[in-house]
Fluorescence recovery protein
Amino acid sequence: MHTSELQWSTEEKAIAKEAIATAYSREISGLVQVVRDRASSLNSMDDLWQLHDFLSARRHELDGKYDDRESALLFVFSSLVKEGWLSLDELEGLDAAKLSKITALTRMF
Amino acid sequence: MHTSELQWSTEEKAIAKEAIATAYSREISGLVQVVRDRASSLNSMDDLWQLHDFLSARRHELDGKYDDRESALLFVFSSLVKEGWLSLDELEGLDAAKLSKITALTRMF
């Protein structure tokens, strides 16, 4: 899959940017809610350090996840769709080849 | 200050153990409360990572703090008294030389 050879039009770039921002906002809101819930039932030091481990893992994961380089976008979108942070509908406007690759990647990983 | 040469009687060891457990429990309870409060006002990713940084720092600090080796006890107690997790009264029963060293250390650092 030669994603690096794909051309992104100005319109597609705008759609991609918006989709990434939407997914990111949803994922962060979800994470904020999880952390609030976990924090409200904290009791022991073990609970504290489990919360710390959880945040360490999420931070590491999120640091590399929202890669907006064009060469990474198809992989990024397939992950976000698979994880439920984005629907394929929200990528409407990308050309059919890109959408088809995103769908294929969603099934592969 | 030759803390390593001090002898700790069975009674003193019991007092030290109890005092450490008391201070530890108080400090963890305080930390749980702080984390709950911070978590309840989380909103953004920055807030999440600030909470993560805060927990990283506390974990690092607490990992080395409650050292219950006899050679470390006077330093541990002076820190705990200084930080308010323990009062000198709660060390009653230790011999006068130890209490006096703890008091002196509390003033030094």
Summary: The interface with chain B takes residues 28, 31-32, 35-36, 38-40, 42-45, 47-49, 51-52, 55-56, 58-59, 62 of chain A (CB under 8 Å). Residues 13-106 of chain A form one domain.
